[in-house]
Specification:
Helix content: 25-40%
Number of domains: 2
Shape: globular
CATH topology of the largest domain: TIM Barrel
Oligomer: single chain
Bound molecules: zinc ion
CATH superfamily of the largest domain: Metal-dependent hydrolases
Radius of gyration: 21 Å
Number of helices: 11
Low-confidence stretches: 1-20
Strand content: 15-25%
CATH class of the largest domain: Alpha Beta
Largest sheet: 9 strands, mixed
Distance between the termini: 20 Å
């Protein structure tokens, strides 16, 4: 069965696949296919059983058994993908990270995640890579399983589980020596990295996240944690199980170690240098710059964008973004949403344009390039025959005005459709 739900009605129906599902034909003004900055016109898309099976002129498609959805003035495109989310966190100006980790029950955090995921899907994001439960054990794995069973609506979730940190490096911090607090990730070192990596995999991690640096320098600055060989150990252990590894790294030395250790993406990279981005390009490592989180944190610390000089964090992330573009690094779209409001993920895409990337390239990052980095290029991220029907429509042309992504007019996730038309 297919359901057409009006966006105005905030009600979801969990959908069971029915035996006599009707086909759906989407008729937009233009299509962004995920790989080309040139929009395609005069084409309609036929969806059957949750997959795209034909893309042709409307008069060439069999409309007799299909529900036709007209999308005048709109561009159809792949559902958006965010490669760096935290569905178990909410904005730090509501509740700081320490209090979320130490004072919120796992039940509260899971229920919040349900709200976050619904807002994210309605915002046009059909896949999230979630970068760690931040102290909530394997609640992310449980939330993912609930999504898969249709218990709650939301994007596809690809989860890291607990994530790995070096002993002594991670928070919450600042307690007396006799007080032991639970950490926001799982500590491990050379002697037990294989065990911890395998244990996280066994508990349902889809990939492994390692913190290659953290703010544990003598003055609270970001300093490297693991050695290259420690990171290699994690990467090889994960790879043996068919999983990849990604690294949190802000400082050049931690980025260098993570790249040489074999990770597939670097998260943040705020202080990356031209030499480091060249190394990433040479080794085929992609970068998730998380610009939106950087701007959100600067705002929480009192920055008013456009007023006065940019703080160091913003200066750094602008210059690193310029350097990465110049080096030709593969850019992923990953926002670190959770630091700021879930559903505002497209802020990252607006900032990527503002910081100098071509809008068409940003759209490719948020669709086909992100899909490739998830090892899912044959399933999602393109409007192409055979792909899953995870699609959105937006008013006008997103290459001319990226901000139209903020309010999709239609979101399709297989059998579930939100339609504002
Ligand atoms: Zn993060």
């Amino acid at each position: 069965m297919k359901y057409l739900l009006n966006f105005v009605v905030i009600a979801w129906i969990s959908v069971q696949a029915g035996p006599a599902a009707a086909d759906i034909i989407l008729v937009p003004d233009a299509i962004f296919d995920g790989t080309s900055s040139k929009l395609i016109t005069n084409r309609a898309v036929l969806v059957s059983d949750g997959r795209i099976i034909q893309i042709a002129n409307l008069d060439k498609l069999d409309q007799s058994k299909a529900q036709v959805i007209l999308l005048p003035g709109q561009t159809l495109m792949p559902g958006l993908i965010d490669l760096h989310s935290h569905v178990l966190l909410h904005p730090y100006d509501e509740t700081n990270w320490n209090d979320q980790v130490l004072k919120e029950s796992w039940a509260e955090r899971a229920l919040r995640a349900g709200n976050h995921l619904k807002a994210t899907l309605e915002a046009g994001y059909t896949t999230l890579r979630d970068l760690g439960s931040e102290g909530a054990g394997y609640v992310d794995v449980g939330v993912k399983q609930a999504l898969q069973k249709g218990v709650i609506p939301g994007p596809r979730l690809i989860v890291a589980g607990k994530a790995i940190v070096a002993t002594g490096s991670y928070g919450p911090k600042g307690f007396a020596e006799h007080v032991n607090v639970p950490l926001g990730a799982e500590p491990a070192d050379a002697s037990n990295l294989v065990t911890v990596t395998r244990d996280q995999i066994g508990h349902g991690a889809d990939f492994i996240k390692v913190y290659a640096d953290y703010r544990w320098g003598p003055n609270g600055e970001a300093m490297p944690t693991f050695s290259v060989s420690e990171i290699q150990t994690i990467v090889e252990t994960a790879r043996s199980s068919g999983r990849y590894t990604v690294a949190h790294a802000s400082s050049p030395e931690a980025m260098r170690r993570a790249i040489l250790g074999g990770v597939e993406t670097i998260e943040h990279g705020t202080a990356g240098t031209p030499e480091i981005f060249q190394l990433m390009k040479d080794k085929g490592v992609a970068w998730c710059p998380t610009l939106a989180a950087g701007e959100a944190i600067a705002e929480y610390q009192g920055w008013r964008k456009g007023e006065g000089a940019d703080p160091k964090r913003i200066i750094d992330q602008k210059s690193s973004f310029t350097a990465a573009l110049k080096a030709g690094v593969t850019m992923c779209a990953g926002s670190d949403v959770g630091v700021f409001d879930h559903g505002d993920n497209a802020w990252e895409l607006e900032l990527m344009v503002e910081y100098g990337m071509k809008p068409g390239d940003v759209l490719k990052s948020a669709t086909s390039i992100n899909a490739g980095l998830l090892h899912m290029a044959d399933q999602i991220g393109q409007v192409k025959i055979g792909m899953l029907a995870e699609l959105i429509a937006v008013a006008g042309n997103p290459i001319e005005d990226i901000s139209v992504l903020r309010k999709p007019t239609l979101v399709m996730q297989g059998d579930i459709i939100f339609n504002r038309n």
